[in-house]
Structure formats: structure tokens, C-alpha cells
TrEMBL record:
Coiled coil: none annotated. Keywords: ATP-binding, Nucleotide-binding. It holds the Pfam family ABC_tran. Gene3D superfamilies: P-loop containing nucleotide triphosphate hydrolases. The keyword RNA-binding does not apply. SUPFAM superfamilies: P-loop containing nucleoside triphosphate hydrolases. SMART domains: AAA. This is ABC transporter ATP-binding protein.
Length: 260
């Protein structure tokens, strides 16, 4: 297998505080990972390092075979798709669904280049792939939160990334919109030529079987890394959360219950 991501013994300190401590993580092609951690665990800091926006105090970060510090980070970043709820607020509400998706090719807010027939065809196919054909011609501002998230995923795919990071994509969604988005992500993961997925969350129930591996991050340290079915168990999660919990498998969903 080929390494998509390799983080080795990474530390990051800020204002005398150690935010990440000796973090090592290896993602190989053909694997899809869930990154699980509570608020303040260091997930966002780690993501910013993967995307080349932060530099480790110590350790190395290698993405798609390129070690940061030895290559032009902006070139590596072109091969990484990053979907975050914070991006929703920066996009223009009057843009059409297709324009939002096409802007991903240029990593721009808005479109400043002439749209080619090939770009439009690609955008339409991605919108349809994510079950959003009904949004064609709709202005982005009139879409629901869940629809916007799907359009952001389509936008990220427009540049054909090799790595796609989904940063808490279900944040703020109701139960139906969340399930619809998870179904679309599962379909995306099944594509033979699709990108490697990293799904970031603090909700175990969002980690569907398509994510074969999991990284558990707690207080800036790796609690566990490996097969999801070995980590998302009563014993492991009780130790991870430092609370007694039980995991209930209901269909493809794992529900976590606090034991009183």
C-alpha cells in the first residue's frame, strides 16, 4: 500500500502549552479513517498541519508522498479537499449550485473565469452523484444546511483530490439531513477511483462501517489508532471517554450509552 498521510512524532506548542504531544498517524491508500475526539482534543490543530496551515514544533508531516518543509506546500494542497462548515459562510449566497461546485476547481470564492462546457458537465455529474440533482439552478443561499454540505463536498471533488477531509460535516444537521449526508459519503467512499477519506467528528454514531480505521485523539495525544472495529468497543471507549459507556450496534450505526 502507498502512504497517503504520515505524521511522525509531532508536537505543537503554543504560549507554553502543548496542544499536540508526540502524535504519530499513518494513513494508507485504500483506507478511510474516522478521527474521533471531544472538543479541545487537538483535532483542528492536527487538520491544519495536514493541510499545511500550521507547522509542527517538532516532528514531520508527509502528505501524498511529499514531506512538508521539502516541497511547495501550496502544490500539495491542490490535491487535498477540505470540507468544513465554516466555509459555508464565506461563499456567495446568490451563486447557483453549479457555480459553487465549479469554484472548487479554482479554490476560489466566486467564479472569475469563463465556465466551460466540460466544467459544467463535471459539476452536474458531481451534484447528481451526491443526490442533489434537484438543486440545479438553485441559488446557494436558498439551500438547507444539509444541501449546502453536499454542495461543498461536490465542490471539493471538482479538483479531483487524492485526499478528502470532512471536518464535522454533520454539525448543525437534523437527524434526517445527517442520515442523507452520511448515505452520500458512503456512496462516495465506494467509488473505485475516489479519494481517501478522513472523517472528523466527536459523535461515534456518525462513524459508519465505510470507515475501516479510526484515530482516537484525547488532550492532544493519540489514545488509539487502528481498526475501527477494535477501537469502538465498550472497553476502549470507556477508557477513552473516562466514563463507563456501552456500545449498541443498531444496523450500521453504533450508539454509545453512558452507564449510570
Amino acid at each position: 500500500m502507498t502512504d497517503v498521510l504520515q505524521v511522525e512524532n509531532v508536537f505543537w506548542r503554543r504560549e507554553g502549552k502543548e496542544v499536540l504531544s508526540d502524535v504519530s498517524w499513518r494513513v494508507q491508500k485504500g483506507e478511510h479513517w474516522a478521527l474521533l475526539g471531544l472538543n479541545g482534543s487537538g483535532k483542528t490543530t492536527l487538520l491544519n498541519m495536514v493541510n499545511g496551515y500550521l507547522w509542527p514544533t517538532a516532528g514531520t508531516v508527509q502528505v501524498l508522498g511529499q514531506e512538508y518543509g521539502a516541497v511547495k506546500v501550496s502544490e500539495v494542497r491542490k490535491q487535498i479537499g477540505w470540507v468544513s462548515s465554516s466555509l459555508q459562510e464565506r461563499l456567495y449566497g446568490e451563486s447557483s449550485a453549479e457555480e459553487i461546485v465549479i469554484s472548487g476547481k479554482y479554490a476560489s470564492i466566486g467564479l472569475y473565469d469563463e465556465v466551460t462546457a466540460a466544467d459544467m458537465e463535471r459539476a452536474v455529474s458531481l451534484v447528481e452523484l451526491l443526490g442533489c440533482a434537484h438543486l440545479r439552478g438553485r441559488s446557494y443561499g436558498t439551500c438547507s444546511q444539509g444541501e449546502k454540505q453536499k454542495l461543498l463536498i461536490a465542490r471539493a471533488l471538482m479538483a479531483d483530490p487524492q485526499l478528502l477531509v470532512l471536518d464535522e460535516p454533520c454539525s448543525g444537521l437534523d437527524i434526517f439531513s445527517r442520515q442523507s449526508l452520511l448515505d452520500s459519503i458512503q456512496q462516495l467512499a465506494s467509488l473505485p477511483d475516489g479519494p481517501t477519506l478522513i472523517y472528523v467528528t466527536h459523535h461515534v454514531e456518525e462513524i459508519t462501517p465505510v470507515f475501516s480505521h479510526a484515530l482516537l485523539l484525547r488532550r492532544g495525544e493519540v489514545f488509539g489508532s487502528g481498526r475501527a472495529d477494535e477501537l469502538l468497543t465498550d472497553g476502549q471507549l470507556s477508557a477513552f471517554f473516562e466514563r463507563s459507556v456501552q456500545v449498541e450496534q443498531r444496523g450500521s450505526i453504533k450508539l454509545v450509552h453512558i452507564v449510570c
